[in-house]
TrEMBL record:
Pfam families: adh_short (PF00106). InterPro entries: NAD(P)-bd_dom_sf, SDR_fam. This is Oxidoreductase. It comes from Streptomyces sp. 900105245. Belongs to the short-chain dehydrogenases/reductases (SDR) family. Keywords: Oxidoreductase. Gene3D superfamilies: NAD(P)-binding Rossmann-like Domain. The keyword Oxidoreductase applies.
């Protein structure tokens, strides 16, 4: 995979992809490059207006692109169910669980979950489960969940998934990103146990310049912190085009194995996609099973096709 770029994405004609958070940043680049290779891409965005503008941008950059916006609010399980019900395709080749929040002030989702855990993990857990029947019947389907190298800051606390014992924004973010990897680990195990061919894998962008870093400070009116993040993005971060490559590799490259994890090749920070280090706790079978059980309970999405 040395030097792998978006130009190396295999032909995607005839394939259907859903990309969450596709109106900006990594999600936008991911959707655009899949469309460039011929995929029909659903831009799953909280705002249909922003999704529509993103679809227009893709169409301008990639003449003939087949992209369409659809409303998906991962902070509202009713919206997640509505999105799955309205998705008009019987087949689904690629699901890219890309959307996320980082280090935002404490809050709760429409269903009462701590916001970062609710959006970054539970929303995508529910979405994947609701779309799984289509993925299981589509040859060569893949599920890519975007984590972060910052998952290494904290394992989940199965007794306090909602951070009710004390909220620290970066620890809550890290726990949600560890949850992404534990989810991928357990999903890959269950699919394999049931003889399914869907590849569940994960990726992270390293340090990529997007609006993710500034959203938290902006929400709290911390203008100094926002400016500091903007400056760090300019000096240290790689562009979103590079940050999206690990996700695109995980989604399309030949030979990707279940439960693999890809990120930038240089110190997990920047560079071409490569297999990435992950914290040992993200491969803990028992914790992954317990998180799965709690996620089913909290979301009401039961993954009937993978029940044990």
């Amino acid at each position: 995979m040395t030097g792998w770029t978006a130009a190396d994405i295999p032909d995607q004609v005839g394939r259907v992809a859903v990309v969450t958070g596709a109106n900006s940043g990594l999600g936008y680049v991911t959707a655009r490059e899949l469309a460039r290779k011929g995929a029909r891409v659903v831009l799953a965005c909280r705002s249909v207006e922003r999704g529509g503008r993103a679809a227009e941008r893709v169409a301008a950059e990639v003449p003939g692109a087949r992209v369409e916006p659809a409303r998906l609010d991962l902070a509202d399980l009713a919206s997640v169910r509505e999105f799955a019900d309205r998705l008009p395709y019987d087949r689904l080749d690629l699901l890219l669980n890309n959307a996320g929040l980082m280090a935002v002030p404490y809050g709760t989702t429409a269903d009462g979950f701590e916001t970062q855990f609710g959006v970054n993990h539970l929303g995508h857990f529910a979405l994947t489960g609701l779309l799984l029947p289509r993925l299981l019947t589509t040859p060569g389907a893949r599920i890519v969940t975007v984590s972060s190298f910052l998952h290494a800051l904290a394992n989940i606390d199965i007794r306090d998934l909602g951070s009710e014992r004390g909220y620290r924004r970066w620890i809550a973010y890290a726990r949600s990103k560890s949850a992404n990897l534990l989810f991928t680990h357990e999903l890959a195990r269950r699919v394999g146990r049931h003889g399914g061919e869907v590849v569940a894998t994960a990726a992270h962008p390293g340090y990529a310049a997007t609006n993710l870093q500034t959203a938290g400070p902006r929400a709290e009116g911390r203008r100094g912190a926002e400016r500091m993040m903007e400056a760090a993005n300019r000096v240290f971060a790689q562009p979103a085009e590079a940050g999206a490559l690990p996700s695109l590799y995980a989604a399309t490259a030949p030979g990707v194995r279940p439960d693999s994890f890809f990120g930038p090749s240089f110190a997990m920070w920047r560079g071409a996609p490569a297999p990435s280090w992950r914290a040992p706790w993200t491969l803990d079978d028992e914790v992954a099973r317990r998180l799965w059980t709690e996620s089913v309970r909290l979301t009401g999405v039961s993954y009937d096709a993978l029940k044990e």
